[in-house]
Amino acid sequence: MLLENKVAIITGASRGIGESIALAYAAEGATIVAASRKIENLTILVENITAQGGKAIAIPTHTGDAEQCRALVNRTIEAFGQVDILVNNAATNPHFGPILSAEASHWQKIFDVNVMGYFWLSKFAAENMQQHGGGKIINMASVTGMSPGPFMGVYSVSKAAVLMLTQALAQELGPYNIQVNAIAPGIIKTKFAEALWSNPSLNKQFVERTPLGRIGEPGDLVGAAVYLASDYSRYHSGDVLILDGGNSTMGF
Ligand SMILES: NC(=O)c1ccc[n+]([C@@H]2O[C@H](COP(=O)([O-])OP(=O)(O)OC[C@H]3O[C@@H](n4cnc5c(N)ncnc54)[C@H](OP(=O)(O)O)[C@@H]3O)[C@@H](O)[C@H]2O)c1
What CATH number corresponds to the domain at position 51? Predict the structure, then answer.
């Protein structure tokens, strides 16, 4: 098992990509601290992991709130002694439309959750990782952080910030043996991207442009997420793994 005796905080773990990563980490022996705002689905995830012989707890957290991020890390340390792996995965996108139509409240909400939330959790987790010899931070970015998604301008800017945050943290935390990397998915079949993949004509366009000939599933990301959390990635930091079925080879 690649993650035995490791304690992993995963945000946005109640469904979609975060849930798949939590299940995969638990199967590799990690103790899971599952976070998202609502407790109901987190509880189901914890029951699933426990039923399979794994160890998990749920901590409801709004990652757009710095104090709740601090509490998530503190409660993890109280429960399990330390944080070894942080997966910053929870994100939001309340604005779909031309970027010039975005209100200040859209910018604020998107940056609070998608950027500041990743920053606060990285800071509080890294303070603990530094004390026990290292750790792993994995930031869920997006291909829209490299080339803006149509009508997703503000969200795309936030994901570009995640990519730069990943590099800045990798630079500063490397001396403490903390590896920081990002995953940039293309379209993945989750609630988040439902408006894109459930539209038959958009779906057809995406599939035709994707060399691997299909839209991604959450499970398509877990191999990279496990690798980046494991000792196999010990000399890998400040990087972004693009998991989009080859779509970006067609030009962003
Ligand atoms: N799906 C795609 O096509 C795609 C593509 C590229 C990148 N991504 C990225 O992948 C990540 C996961 O997305 P997904 O597709 O798995 O989305 P999803 O299925 O909609 O899940 C989002 C998760 O984030 C949680 N969440 C939302 N706002 C939160 C907040 N303020 N605080 C804490 N938790 C919050 C949700 O739970 P609660 O509602 O309980 O809080 C849920 O667990 C995101 O970073 C997204 O930007 C997705």
Answer: 3.40.50.720
